[in-house]
Amino acid sequence: EWPETGRLALYLLGLRATCPLPEPGPQRSLVTWLKYYLEEDWAGSRQHGHPLTSYYQYSLGVLALCIHRKRVREEVIRRLMVAEQQSRFGHASGSATDTEAVVVLAFTCLERERLVGARLAVELRAAVRRARRRMVEAQGRDGFFGNVYSTPWAMQVFIATNMCRTQPAYGWAMAALLENLDAFTTAATMAQVLPALHGRSYLDIASMHCSKELNTLMPIGPKPPPEMPGNKMVRLVVECPELQCPQRRLYDQLVPTPAGASLLDMLRVATAQGPHNFTFDTQDTPQGPFLSSVLGLEARQQKRSYWQLLTAPSTSLQMGVADYRPCDGETLILRLSEW
């Protein structure tokens, strides 16, 4: 069974932010489980030199423990420091700004909460400066750090390190973000962008005074997108590396889809379209449905594989299957890739 490092870390961050009642028993148990997951996450993959899950989940675990003011072994921290020094956070489809930003937030938290010794604190500050400099240098012409979804993470770095007022890149990113708020449609992505919009970071959770927090949360249901008349024709292509499959292109068909349909809706239409038997499966995640299987081929975390979503010829989609809405005449590619 694979460790649920990232999911449990996000849950503990959310739990702390909601100012739970002072009943330490269950919460202490979850923190203990997170410590266990961190060890399992790395110990089971020593031969590969990376966590079983990902550096993103691993650093989220360190951050969540720090927010709860729990110490972690120095070896755990140094694993992330080595990865930062050797630039291991990137993956096959591009940069990993979000991962690096979470690592920086974890480092900043550990130093701020004085959960590390003086010597290690100096090294952490140096790592934070290096990573922050890389983010500025890698900022795109569109103002984003990486992409629209990783930008709030990077902005939290500048907020947490008190650099947002003196760093022009931050203001540029904020302007770009304000023009693209409609991209944040899931609870997980909104939880990342809202702190940045209010000039806060996840590190502020650690210093919240819960007695002063008002219970102002009101549940609301998402409004369904307006129905659009007519249909659109989208070409659906499924590709697989030649080493894993007898042929690279496994599926190539036009799929007539309602005009306002999402990619997920289009895949459902494709399953009912004969005579070509198209199948797929999804897995629920905090970020929404995740494409886990296509034509019987599963994306396996053990093999660090996933189904990459692209628009032809080779542009990665920045939205998930439930959020992206294809255009008429567009070619969409589902490609089994490694990260």
UniProtKB/TrEMBL annotation:
Binding site for cyanocob(III)alamin: T53, S54, Y55, Y56, Q57, D98, N147, Q192, W307, Q308, L309, L317, W339
Disulfide feature: C66-C109
This protein's UniProt keywords: Cobalt, Cobalt transport, Disulfide bond, Ion transport, Metal-binding, Secreted, Signal, Transport
UniProt entry tagged with the keyword Signal: yes
GO biological process: cobalamin transport; cobalt ion transport
GO cellular component terms attached to this protein's record: extracellular space
The organism's place on the tree of life at top rank: Eukaryota
MF terms (GO), sorted A to Z: cobalamin binding; metal ion binding
Predominant place of localization: secreted
Localization of this protein: Secreted
Keyword Hydrolase in annotation: no
PANTHER family: TRANSCOBALAMIN-1/GASTRIC INTRINSIC FACTOR, TRANSCOBALAMIN-2
Role noted for this protein: Primary vitamin B12-binding and transport protein. Delivers cobalamin to cells.
Subunit structure and binding partners: Interacts with CD320 (via LDL-receptor class A domains).
Protein family according to the UniProt entry: Belongs to the eukaryotic cobalamin transport proteins family.
Name by which UniProt lists this protein: Transcobalamin-2
Organism this protein belongs to: Scopus umbretta (Hammerkop)
